[in-house]
């Protein structure tokens, strides 16, 4: 994963600030209180305690003492990192998460899974420009029954398949008034769609893929089966068990949405939840609130689902409330706000959220 130079130097700078002096300015006019000093005995005991709690909460076991000690070192580094994230993203809460025992590199390799985009699949359309004058201030597809419960991709880089099923589940709901959970494993096992210009960007199960490729596959193959008929195993590319007679939802067409916050909102309201891509660096330590980091790479490495937006989000360490996007993630409901992430709206393309947005339309099918 590449990090913007700006992000990198700011994180370094912030790390230096907190170890060198007491109260400093973060460069944006906000004081940063020193939270990390050389750890004294009390803090070390506290970290010991936090690690014990972490292991019990997330049912972590390590194969031997060497592994355990290594994970404890990674954990300590992540606790410090979460404190830095807290300073640079004050409208969210950052801290210990289920990913606190993996390094950022491991995190990006094992729990994300978005490939780079070179060109769009042949059947990709361009979304029509919609009127934006009557947009609501708050909108949430969860309240309208278009969103299935939060799923968990586990140790598999299959984020792209969850983003794609989420968008089709919403579109299918709009077309049929039926909410049906759809199969990611079908995409992982059967979808090997390739970018005609770059073989390196084929969909390869747990090793990554792209939402638009998944829509192309689904259009060509006829549709997706239900989750219950083709359940998730999180194992990489087993034999494809797709059975055409058991198709539950079909793609009619899919389009890319222009990189404009109002167009994204209008497409969301009109067409249902949208498949989007994001840079997930800040999500490793995210707990709650509206994430609005001072700097964030626009290099997208994670596929997620945009389900709504709000005008005034709870921002614990800020006086003003922030407008936000509501994002469904695929890391289970113990992560973030019951499995959801909020990122600020009105900061165009923050963390790359505006520039890989797709909407899908489902065929009206009679439920069996
Ligand atoms: C797109 O069309 C080209 C030319 O017809 C074909 O070679 C390629 O395989 C197609 N790609 C996809 C993803 O269908
Ligand atoms: C496909 O599903 C149908 C209906 O459930 C079933 O009768 C058929 O045996 C299945 N085909 C295969 C190849 O599994
Ligand atoms: C996509 O499919 C839907 C539903 O079949 C249809 O209403 C819409 O016009 C189509 N959009 C495009 C751009 O073809």
UniProtKB/TrEMBL annotation:
Transmembrane segments: none annotated. Residues 1-22 form the signal peptide. Belongs to the peptidase C1 family. Residues 51-107 form the Cathepsin propeptide inhibitor domain. One of its GO terms (molecular function) is cysteine-type endopeptidase activity. This is Cysteine protease. One of its GO terms (cellular component) is lysosome. The keyword Methyltransferase does not apply. It holds the Pfam family Inhibitor_I29. GO terms for biological process: proteolysis involved in protein catabolic process. Keywords: Disulfide bond, Glycoprotein, Hydrolase, Protease, Signal, Thiol protease, Zymogen. It comes from the Eukaryota. Residues 135-361 form the Peptidase C1A papain C-terminal domain. The keyword Disulfide bond applies. SUPFAM superfamilies: Cysteine proteinases (SSF54001).
